[in-house]
Amino acid sequence: MSRGIFITFEGGEGAGKSTQIRTLASALEEIGRDVLVTREPGGSPGAEAVRHVLLSGAAEPFGPGMEAVLFAAARSDHVEQVIRPAVERGAIVLSDRFLDSSRVYQGVTGNLEPDFMRTLEKVAIHGMTPDLTIILDLDPEEGLRRASARRGDEIADRYEKETLAVHRRRREAFLDIAAAEPERCVVVDASMPPDEVAAAIADAAYAVISRVGDEAGQEVGQ
Ligand code: Z5A
Question: For 27, 28, 62, 195, which has the most beta carbons within 10 A of its beta carbon?
């Protein structure tokens, strides 16, 4: 049995991550693949309990360091309870946000020390680096407009309420990560119509699926 594949989706608010994960999951299931869709913060019972604390803003008064540790604790549980077992059984795991969100939201716009962030990341993921990260790139004004239209009368969460300048800085930070790790990250223009965004994502995903399949074939042939 070939090993599974771990794909993460990143980007700003309202960029279309959930929409595109659903589309890719359906396409992969149609060709008979075992697919697990998950999200952060959350994805396991322990991490979902921490999600509420983080998104309600309950941890915000205690500072970005406290929030970063909580995101890392949730991620560690998510990795060990859900992601690693699924990848080990051969599934394709699609996660709505993962380590790059911590690098950007807590590390860059939370102004936390790079060494502190690296240590937390190492402990939280314990070697579970994504095979592919799709960065959905969108002007934050459009992303917030989409997120607000979808939310309707519900209250904006802790992150949606932040200033446009902060959201712009995050967009740049995601693009900086993609430039620094081109072997892992693919940037997709999220301003295109959903089917065009989906086609670009499918190209990137199938390329990785085929590469991992070839590597598994070579190992079996050794
Ligand atoms: N966070 C953090 O700080 N540190 C961390 O380590 C992690 C997370 C893991 C999670 O929020 C928050 O936690 C997040 C960062 C922080 N900040 N916020 N907010 P969340 O899970 O509640 O929300 P989100 O991750 O930001 O996702 P989202 O706002 O739900 O957006 P989305 O999933 O990217 O978009 P969508 O739901 O697919 O689409 C939004 C709307 O746009 C919807 O009505 C769609 O129909 C529409 N849409 C989608 N695609 C298109 C296109 N192509 N054209 C037009 N309209 C579209």
Answer: 28
pLDDT tens profile 187-199: 999 999 999 999 9
Q: How far apart are the two ends of the chain, measured CA to CA in Å?
A: 15
Fold of 5-221: Rossmann fold (3.40.50)
Say if residues 156 and 94 touch (Cβ distance below 8 Å): no
Q: Could you read off the pLDDT of 20-71 as tens digits, one per residue?
A: 999 999 999 999 999 999 999 999 999 999 999 999 999 999 999 999 999 9
Identify any residues that bridge with 185 across adjacent strands, giving them in sequence order: 133
Ligand 1 interacting residues, C-beta cut-off 6 A? 13-19, 40-41, 55, 71, 96-97, 101-102, 105-106, 146-147, 150, 157, 159-160, 190, 193-194, 197
Cα–ligand 1 centroid distance for 157 (angstroms): 11
Domain positions in the chain: 5-221
Whether pTM exceeds 0.90: yes
